[in-house]
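Summary of Year 1 activities. Much of the first year was spent building the evaluation harness for sequence design. The harness presents a backbone, in tokenized form, and records the residue chosen at every position. We chose the following record to illustrate the format because it has been used consistently in internal testing since the harness was completed.
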């Protein structure tokens, strides 16, 4: 009897993913548990020890924050790549494929390499399952370990690690950072992190460690002071936005300034930001601070790496940074169809930032002002009312739906009641259970009016959750294409 044919790469990848998804997965839990009992860093350290401690071979920029983590990570990685260095990024969640979470020089992990990573962690995880009281590593533990293995194997010059949830108890918090970054603090995951901004800041600031400089973009007094207190306790230098660095308008774009440790001021003129939205100026400021502080760290031990992080490389990196699902502007193939914006806004602060970005796009004449359609779905652990208050009044129609590949979605009928309560502008609310049908309905509502074609098409905005963006983006891309840069005619 002949041996069975070996599995194809795609079959190996699918089998590996099925096993990984079979682990305890808090991304699919409602509510998400958050405690030292459920999120054990000792378990994560043991997992990495059995895998050869790959995190100890990485030069890490560790990024936490309520919002702005993904954009800041994208800008930091883009600048390092523009410097001619090799950079890895670990981010979560993914939009379309798991492999997006582990990228090297902007390229997701290949399917075969992903299957190989699962083959390496699976026997270790299953051994820990048998040995460890309370269970072995979770889905996110394993995803994080796989990322560290991949980036260490690839010998990246820098690894940019994005925190999954919180910071203090997050699986990524076993890393040995060169720089720690906290982008912002606002209310989110309140069931896990609480309703105090200072308490949330202490959880996010839990990534700050002795010996590694920290960069904070937090501006509100209470959370800012909480971050400063942690840095003081850990004995590490803190670079605080508004005190130690800033990014402000100048005659030729934006000007970044940072007070140097030895005195004097570093200045980078002519900064432009490729990601859309005024809120990206805050993220860009944090990214530039992290990059210049990283350069200082490297200057003391690896001057050849430090020398690569020139001002020109940093400027190019910020201008060329791209990130799917963050005020992502998509132009239709057919001009009679609406423009589309996909954004993963999933809390009040990120919804407000999206609203500001949309106002700017409307002022620039990017879409007709009278056919604005929002497609909205929200997780049950989010403040749907706060999100709807920020977004619904800006639209003529709100198509309420859900996402189907994650059980955390609020039922559309319940979400519709929330939207009705806050849509003071008189927006018409449509309830559509199936997300694909919601996209088609929104497309029809925002399309060009055949009786008045000169008015042009409107805009469809998809927001409220990473999971909604993940499910609808492939459908949207069949009829649109991403707009690179600031194309005024798009």
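For this record, the design step produced the sequence shown next.
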């Amino acid at each position: 009897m002949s041996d069975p044919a070996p599995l194809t790469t795609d079959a190996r990848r699918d089998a590996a993913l099925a096993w990984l998804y079979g682990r305890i997965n808090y991304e699919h839990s409602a509510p998400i548990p958050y405690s030292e009992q459920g999120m054990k860093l000792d378990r994560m350290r043991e997992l990495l020890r059995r895998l050869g401690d790959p995190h100890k071979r990485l030069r890490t920029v560790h990024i936490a924050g309520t919002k702005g983590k993904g954009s800041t990570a994208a800008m930091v990685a883009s600048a390092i790549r523009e410097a001619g260095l090799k950079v890895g990024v670990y981010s979560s969640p993914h939009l379309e494929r798991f492999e997006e979470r582990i990228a090297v020089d902007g390229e997701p992990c290949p399917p075969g390499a992903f299957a190989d990573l699962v083959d390496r962690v699976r026997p270790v995880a299953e051994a820990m399952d048998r040995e460890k009281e309370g269970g072995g590593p979770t889905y996110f533990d394993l995803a994080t370990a796989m990322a560290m293995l991949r980036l260490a194997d690839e010998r990246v010059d820098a690894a940019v690690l994005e925190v999954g949830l919180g910071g203090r108890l997050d699986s990524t918090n076993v890393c040995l950072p060169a720089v720690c970054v906290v982008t912002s603090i606002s209310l989110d995951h309140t069931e896990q992190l609480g309703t105090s901004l200072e308490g949330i800041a202490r959880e996010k600031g839990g990534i700050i460690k002795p010996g590694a400089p920290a960069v904070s973009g937090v501006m509100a007094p209470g959370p800012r002071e909480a971050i400063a207190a942690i840095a003081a306790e850990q004995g590490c230098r803190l670079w605080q936005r508004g005190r130690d660095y800033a990014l402000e308008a100048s005659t030729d774009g934006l000007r970044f300034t940072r007070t140097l440790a030895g005195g004097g001021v570093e200045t980078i003129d002519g900064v432009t930001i490729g990601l859309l939205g005024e809120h990206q100026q805050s993220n860009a400021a944090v990214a530039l601070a992290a990059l210049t502080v990283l350069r200082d760290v490297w200057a003391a031990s690896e001057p050849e790496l430090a020398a690569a992080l020139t001002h020109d490389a940093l400027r190019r990196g910020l201008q060329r940074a791209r990130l799917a699902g963050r005020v992502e502007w998509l132009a239709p193939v057919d001009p009679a169809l609406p423009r589309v914006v996909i954004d993963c806004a999933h809390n009040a602060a990120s919804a407000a930032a999206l609203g500001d970005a949309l106002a700017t796009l409307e002022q620039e004449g990017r879409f007709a002002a009278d056919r604005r359609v929002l497609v909205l779905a929200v997780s049950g652990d989010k403040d749907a009312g706060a999100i709807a208050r920020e977004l619904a009044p800006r639209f003529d129609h709100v198509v309420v739906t859900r996402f189907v590949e994650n059980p955390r979605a609020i039922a559309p009928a319940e979400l519709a009641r929330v939207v009705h309560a806050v849509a003071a502008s008189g927006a018409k609310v449509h309830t559509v259970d199936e997300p694909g049908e919601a996209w088609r309905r929104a497309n029809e509502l925002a399309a060009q009016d055949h009786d008045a074609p000169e008015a042009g098409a409107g805009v469809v905005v998809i927001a409220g959750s990473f999971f909604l963006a993940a499910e609808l983006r492939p459908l949207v891309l069949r009829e649109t294409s991403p707009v690179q840069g600031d194309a005024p005619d798009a």
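The mean pLDDT is 90. Quantitative recovery figures across the full test set are reported in Table 2.
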